[in-house]
Structure formats: structure tokens, C-alpha cells
């Protein structure tokens, strides 16, 4: 499903936990696990309707009853199609409702703190591994200590990086006003010297 690629790791883990699947691994592993679960669910739904079709086929073997039996199985198939369609409708609305509610619900502070510490430790490891500035490593260590002591608030940039808060939109720059005289070294000054 293409929808899984667009979701964040936090959202994917929440979907996995709702379905009772393990939530460890990288994003592509989480997506693969969700897609595999979807395929299994699709296979189980047609498997439930197949036994009814199998029962209708042996009844159609007798030549005298061919016409009546041929008319009856489509009716049964239509009824089962309606029955299958009805349960799938509420499940999609439930999942849509869950998707709408998930961005508004915040995980508990302990989980946020754990996620932030995991992210910061990963950054620190990468900074040390790839030889980044010592100041960057020291700054990450200070930030880890701060998060351990105080946790995170909604204004912290880490909340945006974790995908728990939407970033604030940046203000658009104002267009330059026409008719202003250019500052030092501008064209207007150069033109005035020539006259």
C-alpha cells in the first residue's frame, strides 16, 4: 500500500501495535510487515466465501437440475458479496477514524522521552562514528542530559523531528517595495555620479 510509505515510523508502529504485530525494526521492515498482514487478511476473506461456492458445484452435476442450480448460486453469491461488503465498510471507517485521531493523540511523556533519547543517542553515535565536530557531540550529550532530567515540551525542535508536532510555518518574506532608493553602491547612486 502506498499509504504506508507516506506515514512516519511512529504512525506505522502505532498501526502495528493495534494489529498486535511486533513494532521493532526499520521503516521498510515495518511497511513490509503491514503489507504482509493486509495480504493475509485479503486471503482469509475470500477463503470464507470459497466453501459456499464449492458446495454449489456438486449440486450442479445432475443434468436435470442444471438450470435451477445455475440460477440459485448467483443469488447466494450476491448475498455473500453483500455480507462481505457490509463488514468491510465499518472496518475502513474505523481505520479512517483512527488515522484522523492518531495525529491529535500524544503518547505518554515516558514514551516521548524514550523516543527522544533513542534519537539523540543515535545522532551522538553517528557524530562520533563519522568524526563530526567535538562541539556537536558535546552539544548532543548536553541535550541528552537535559531530556533525561526534564523531558520534552511541545516547543522543542525534537518534537517536530519525532513527528509528534507539526512544524510551524515560516513567515513569507515581504516583497521589495518599488520606488525606494538603493542603498550604498546601488544603481541609483552610480547613475547620479554620471550626470
UniProtKB/TrEMBL annotation:
This is SAP domain-containing protein. InterPro entries: SAP_dom, SAP_dom_sf, SAP_domain_ribonucleoprotein, THO1_MOS11_C. Residues 37-60, 86-111, 164-195 are annotated as: Disordered. One of its GO terms (biological process) is transcription elongation by RNA polymerase II. Gene3D superfamilies: SAP domain (1.10.720.30). PANTHER family: SAP DOMAIN-CONTAINING RIBONUCLEOPROTEIN. Belongs to the SAP domain-containing ribonucleoprotein family. Residues 4-38 form the SAP domain. Keywords: Phosphoprotein. Residues 181-195 have a biased composition (Basic residues). GO terms for molecular function: chromatin binding; double-stranded DNA binding; RNA binding. GO terms for cellular component: nucleus. It holds the Pfam family SAP.
